[in-house]
Automatic annotation (TrEMBL):
The lineage of its organism: Bacteria, Bacillati, Bacillota, Bacilli, Bacillales. Pfam families: HTH_3. Residues 5-59 form the HTH cro/C1-type domain. InterPro entries: Cro/C1-type_HTH, Lambda_DNA-bd_dom_sf. It comes from the Bacteria. It comes from Oceanobacillus arenosus. This is Transcriptional regulator. One of its GO terms (molecular function) is DNA binding.
Amino acid sequence: MHRELIILRKQHKLTKKDMAHVLKINPKTYSMKEDGLSDFKYKEIFLIAKMFNRNIDEIFLPPNIRKTDKNVN
């Protein structure tokens, strides 16, 4: 499950169907991807990050990995 993506989607008052439309995929396919049952394609990941004006890692990496990455010199 992509928790940060779900939070962003809801904050922007977007439905899974809206997201599927933006990505030009079937709503069921989008739902499976958001739920972690299928993988997003790279182009979808980049489009989502651009859409929400966020870095890819802020949306798709778990928080514990993001924190660890910031501590690396």
